[in-house]
Design a protein that fits this description.
With 262 residues, the protein is α/β, with parallel strands linked by helices. The chain has helices spanning 9-18, 29-40, 59-69, 87-107, 118-134, 175-186, 199-207, 222-229, 249-258, and strands at residues 23-24, 84-85, 110-114, 138-139, 146-147, 152-156, 159-164, 167-169, 194-198, 212-216, 234-237. Helix 1 (9-18) crosses helix 4, helix 4 packs across helix 9 and helix 6 packs across helix 7 (199-207).
Length: 262
């Protein structure tokens, strides 16, 4: 299944479909629509650290953005069964993200990495952090002793994660990123120039004025809404937890090559 070396654009798009990172993804349509509805109804658990106000209180407006930026089915009457992520949109977003990574490398910027989906995306972030460090960036080390109601905010292989009960924790919350940014300010340390993350880690940072790029699944619309409003710089659509995390390796290789980091 893995592609040796760096894939071409066409090879990557084919790989994304074959591994269900894009194309006919595992997330069912009814789950997508349920999340869009909950976000529109003001359920802040689906806002991913962002402040959306009343700008997205129509579920159909959310669906329209997701169709445009992710490639889900745009028919509001399609309520059950298969839904999709357009692999061409995934690759295009990776290329936009690569441009921001290149800017970070050229400027030797301070970059913070974080994931709320360690089972799927931890190594994507780790490899990107290693490449940026080799290019001269400072990878931000988070303060020690940070906590949220869900657990401890830790850093493994340069990637901030939430630890709960001795396990790395899946979370949509923006609270861990809030803890990091607040901790840096209290210590008199500068905030990152760039955050590379997902879920609420990316959303909270973007909402609070830090340049942020991130990955998001088709049932997590908030980051795509933030990108459409210019709050988040890039949101990459993908299934964020496929069968094997190794399936993301060709995607990471393509991203780093496009950024001039590989």
């Amino acid at each position: 299944m893995p592609i040796p070396g760096t894939p071409s654009r066409a090879e990557l798009a084919e790989h994304l479909v074959r591994t269900r990172i894009a194309g006919d993804v595992a997330t069912p349509r009814e789950n997508n629509l349920s999340h869009y509805r909950k976000l529109a109804n003001g359920d802040r658990g689906f806002w991913l650290g962002l402040e959306l106000g009343d700008r997205w209180n129509d579920e159909q407006d959310v669906l329209a953005v997701m169709a445009e930026r992710v490639g889900v089915n745009d028919d509001p009457e399609h309520r059950y069964g298969q839904d999709t992520i357009d692999p061409e949109l995934t690759v295009a977003a990776l290329e936009r993200m690569a441009g921001r990574l290149r800017k970070a490398a050229d400027g030797g910027q301070r970059v913070l990495f974080a994931t709320g989906h360690p089972g799927g995306l931890l190594d994507v972030h780790r490899a990107t952090a290693a490449a940026l460090r080799a290019a001269g960036c400072e990878i931000v080390v988070i303060p020690e002793g940070l906590t949220t109601e869900e657990g401890y905010v830790q850093q493994f292989a340069d990637v901030s994660v939430l630890e709960h009960g001795a396990s790395l924790w899946h979370t949509h919350s923006g609270e861990p990123m809030k803890a990091i940014l607040t901790g840096l300010e209290r210590a008199g340390r500068p905030l990152p120039d760039l955050v590379v993350a997902d879920h609420g880690w990316a959303g909270y940072a973007a909402q609070h004025g830090v340049d942020s790029v991130g990955y998001a699944d088709c049932n997590d619309p908030a980051l795509f809404l933030a990108e459409s409003e210019g709050t988040l710089q890039v949101a990459v659509p993908l299934d964020d937890h496929v069968v094997s995390p190794r399936y993301y390796d060709p995607m990471t290789a393509y991203l780093l090559t496009e950024a001039g980091l590989k």
